[in-house]
């Protein structure tokens, strides 16, 4: 059987892998075997942390809403606020409420006051 020289195609594949890990430190961006290991590891981490990012943002929104609601009234908290939102069937998700809490806090106070009045009566 004749000898196959794998220069062109193998080099092309390695260069493509090297471009993917170009920002990594040390041997992780220099040595071919380490490059393949680190690229696989990076892709696995990226896949896992996409779900983690969603959880983290939801936690952040909840914290922002809670801080804004407790700002004026110590007796009114996040869980009551969300419960009353669902009772009144207002379709505002946590992301929008958190943006309102940051940009226009008075608007959030108006929303919460209206919900309180409606639930109280």
From TrEMBL:
A GO cellular-component term linked to this record: chloroplast
Pfam families found in the cross-reference section: Ribosomal_L20 (PF00453)
Gene Ontology terms, MF aspect: rRNA binding; structural constituent of ribosome
Alphabetically ordered keywords of this record: Chloroplast, Plastid, Ribonucleoprotein, Ribosomal protein, RNA-binding, rRNA-binding
SUPFAM superfamilies referenced in this protein's UniProt entry, alphabetically: Ribosomal protein L20
NCBIfam families: rplT_bact
Protein name per the record: Large ribosomal subunit protein bL20c
Taxonomic source organism: Corchorus capsularis
């Amino acid at each position: 059987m004749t000898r196959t020289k794998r220069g062109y195609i193998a080099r092309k594949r390695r260069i493509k892998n090297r471009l993917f890990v170009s920002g990594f430190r040390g041997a992780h961006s220099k040595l071919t075997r380490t490059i393949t290991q680190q690229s696989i590891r990076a892709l696995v981490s990226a896949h896992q942390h996409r779900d983690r990012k969603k959880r983290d943002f939801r936690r952040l929104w909840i914290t922002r809403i809670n801080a804004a609601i407790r700002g004026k009234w110590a007796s009114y908290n996040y869980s009551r606020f969300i419960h009353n939102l669902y009772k009144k069937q207002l379709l505002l998700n946590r992301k929008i409420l958190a943006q309102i809490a940051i940009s226009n806090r008075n608007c959030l106070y108006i929303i919460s006051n209206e919900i309180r009045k409606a639930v109280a009566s």
